Amino acid sequence: MILLTLGTYPLSFERLVRIVDQGIVSGQIKEDIFAQIGFSSYIPKAMKYELIMEKQHFENVLRSSTAIISHAGMGTISLALSENKALLVFPRLVMYKEMVNDHQLSTARKFEETGHVLAAYTSEELYEKIRLLKNFTPKPRYSSPERVSRCVGRFMQNINLNCALKKEEQQ
Fold it and tell me: Which one is the CATH code of 2-133: 3.40.30.10, 3.40.140.10, 1.10.760.10, 3.40.50.2000?
């Protein structure tokens, strides 16, 4: 069973629920899918679902799933990687009023490039990538506090330099 989850963001993501449901109806998706649809106003016709799940119930469903389909949110990506679950992300987009900006596009692209997730951007890609999920093994992600520290240090140096330059200009 594949878990379709939309995260906890309070805007609807019915586009993804509708695409997956229609894929099941049309026979393009043959896998068994259970959905946590959150704030979606679209009610699935061809898959079992719940609106919101209690934390323990969600964790049980997640652990028993073979893979996950979700938006490209960092919480879901981190969870899938920590559970070593194959994840297919489908970014929320501003043009559909699913998000306030399109940061999920770059998140999806970056995590796909590094081999941590599969990503789809159209319904056709989604159907194709669902078929690839069963054989997809995500590359492990290792944290690097030293690298983060260096990046933050460079950022702070740039801020200090910019502030110093502005002070000189004002004098």
Answer: 3.40.50.2000
